[in-house]
Amino acid sequence: MRTGAPPSYSPDGQQLPAYTIDEAATAAKDTRQGQPIVPERVLLQRAVRAAAESSSTEADFLNAVVHNDVEIEAARYDANDDTKVTGYKVGLTDSDARRWYTASQLARDLTLGKLRPRWADNENDASREQARRLWAEETEPEAAQEVEDAAPALEEAAEHLREWTNELRDLDAGDTQAWNEQMLRAAGVASAMSLPPVFQTEKQADQSAEPVKIEYLRGRGADQLTQVAGPRTSSPPAGPAGPSRAELAACRVILAMRASSPDSHRGWLAVMQQFGRTMKAIEDAQRARQELAAARRATADMYAAVGAATQRLEQLHAAVSIDHLLYDPARSTSLSPAAQRAVEGIRHGTPTGRPAVSPQPAPGSFETPRRVPDERSRGIEGVKKRPKRWAGG
Q1: Is the pLDDT of residue 261 over 70?
Q2: Distance CA 382, CA 210 (A)
Q3: Which of 20, 279, 309, 316 is the most exposed place for a label (fewest CB within 10 A)?
Q4: pTM here?
Q5: How many whole angstroms separate alpha carbon 29 and alpha carbon 59?
Q6: Can you tell me the distance from the alpha carbon of 189 to that of 248, in angstroms, rounded to the nearest whole number?
Q7: What pLDDT does 260 receive?
Q8: DSSP per-residue codes, 26-59
Q9: d(CA 349, CA 355)
Q10: What pLDDT was estimated at residue 318?
């Protein structure tokens, strides 16, 4: 793999951190046809960022990374204490030929030197010993918490996002360091939303459908927030004691993604709409500082993701409602062909009721994801299952 001088690259021309032409070529070979091409390094950066944002201690972080289908190992130790880990490396769990990346190769703000100050107030002897045992592989990571119903977690996530947005409205727009921290926290929440697809129902298992990749848009939005924000300092701005609202929201989002309930569209809709308000608070602060270009760069992809998710969730909720209304087993009547097409049209977001299929890219070429200037003005097709390597997260 080539490193160093080559600039970042992506199929649609957008620059991303640590994204070289060679990495894109490798990703193109490993990615299922029709899926967006995202190199492992970018996927890992999002997974680790989501884990960091949802963690209160170093032990929490190590458990969360593993829960996101990522392998993590110690890569460097203190010169004077061979039990103290000072650096780590990560790789995708399901990768056939795992490639390891150090924290600094993912993002400078994800190194232990930048993350540990955020956890310092929450650490105690027990949590530090638990982290040491996890690094030394003397104990197994904790099992991921699972729930059947996503609704309570989503309700809590939306409330945490609402309170966080109110806190942002009261933050001094001129405090650049504080806003950099908040933008990185927003990137962490967006990264948590970008890992698995959460807008599916059993009715959408048709593999011929070519979906709008909402989780891909959210991942792009997280990358943009990271790029626009300045580097995270070793001493984070002072804030209220205890976990931040962003951390609480990320925790509840990740928990909801593991829920097995098939119909959580209303809850996800509230979360996405509230996160859109959070992004608006960030944009307003940047505009108040006359950072207009940065405001556009930081929020454009997340606005597109929120718009796409909102419209798709409204369609899915309507489809489920119609299914419950018209497919009641107690009813003996059946739908007419025209009514069936109407229901399928709501489900797939197409006038004909048939899933829309995009032509497959030519062999060896990079897919160019469609830009979404205004998702409210057109129908959104479904959302495809995430690639196999992210399965089970």
Answers
A1: no
A2: 7
A3: 20
A4: 0.72
A5: 35
A6: 10
A7: 62
A8: HHHHHSPTTS----HHHHHHHHHHHHHHT-SSHH
A9: 8
A10: 66
